[in-house]
Amino acid sequence: MENNDTRIPREIQWPIVLYYLYLHFSALFGLHIMITEAKWTTLFYTICLVHISVLSLTAGAHRLWAHACFKAHAILRVFLVLGQTLICQGSLYDWVLEHRLHHKYFGTEKDPFNANRGFLFAYLKNKMMTNHPDHEKLLKSVDVKDIEQDPIIVWQKRFYWLLNPLLMAVIVFIPTELWNESLICSILIVGFLRVTILLHCSWILNSASIIWGLDPLNKYSIQTNLVFIVNKSLWPQYHYLLPWDYQSGEFGNYNKGCYTAHIRVWAALRLITDLRTIDTDGIRKAMVDAASTGQDIKQCVEKYTLDPNLLKIKCELDLERIPY
Ligand SMILES: [Zn+2]
């Protein structure tokens, strides 16, 4: 394990800072125009697009591809890939690669969003600074063979340069063509404002352990009033221990939330299968195994993962509850 105190100096990348400033000022103007000029239909349409993109990011990029929490039908994969393309943050392949690197070196200088450097670094500054000197080499060391075998991911990576502007043009012109929204409104709201909101949703994911996570051994953080404002819990830490559990929410929750509900509905529709999860009893047994044998807890837990076939025969909308 690398010494966390050894800080690697990183330079600010001013062109990126200027790009984010430009994006945020345009988004603020978009917000103003949305309140003062835009049609209600445009607002509703933008909310739907944001929802589809966040769903593609959380249930798709994060749980399906980065952590293989379940398997999905090709129709659903295409839908999620298109939703992720609308986020405008590069291909899904690159997102998964960076997220796996983040997990592999979590909390060290090799982690691109190193939480030990504080909230501002994990949330924002990492994007505006130069990477770790060995970043490219480290990315090559990440195992992504599974997603390289998914033709939909390979296709999106190859044609991202064409697919992204094409989809952006389509979603910007829909309001102007279908309900006579002005082009400037559409560009500023559906384009700039939406992309900026999604950027922050993605950044939250990289710093979730700081926003929602409790400090180690701190069951209930009474030192901070934050516990009353945001739902502080140990679930973000749990995600770094068992990233393949499909019930782990990105926003500090477990077994509930809009995106987990979507996954269960898709399971009910037979669009996804092989959901991976574990119950409290399994975790308890794995901990006993780890303590008595000295084995890594991650390996012990694999033994007690709930059988996906057992999950399949239960009521699909309540998949995590298994009869004892
Ligand atoms: Zn993750």
Main attributes of the structure:
324 residues; 1% strand; 62% helix; 16 helices; 2 domains; two-stranded antiparallel ribbon; binds zinc ion; globular
The strand order across the widest sheet is: 1-2
Strand content: under 5%
The ligands bound in this entry are: zinc ion
SSE pattern, N- to C-terminal: HHEHHHHHHHHHHHEHHH
Rounded average pLDDT = 87
Largest sheet: 2 strands, antiparallel
Structural class: mainly alpha
What is the helix content?
55-70%
Q: Which of globular, elongated, flat, extended, rod-shaped describes the shape? A: globular
As for the number of domains, it is 2
Rg computed from alpha carbons, rounded to a whole number of angstroms? 21 Å
- Please mark out the parts with pLDDT under 50 across 5 or more consecutive residues, or reply none: 313-317, 319-324
Alpha carbon gap, first and last residue: 40 Å
In DSSP terms (H or I, runs of 4 or more residues), the helix count works out at 16
Total beta strands: 2
Describe this structure in words.
This protein is an all-alpha fold and 324 residues long. The chain has 2 domains: 14-211, no CATH class; 237-324, no CATH class. The chain is 62% helix and 1% strand. The protein has helices spanning 14-36, 40-66, 74-85, 92-104, 119-128, 135-140, 145-148, 151-178, 183-206, 208-211, 226-229, 235-241, 258-268, 280-293, 297-303, 308-313; strands spanning 71-72, 272-273. The protein has a two-stranded antiparallel ribbon with strand order 1-2. Helix 8 packs antiparallel against helix 9 (183-206). The radius of gyration is 21 Å and the shape is globular. The model is unreliable at 313-317 and 319-324 (pLDDT under 50). The site of zinc ion has 7 residues, from helix 2 and helix 4.
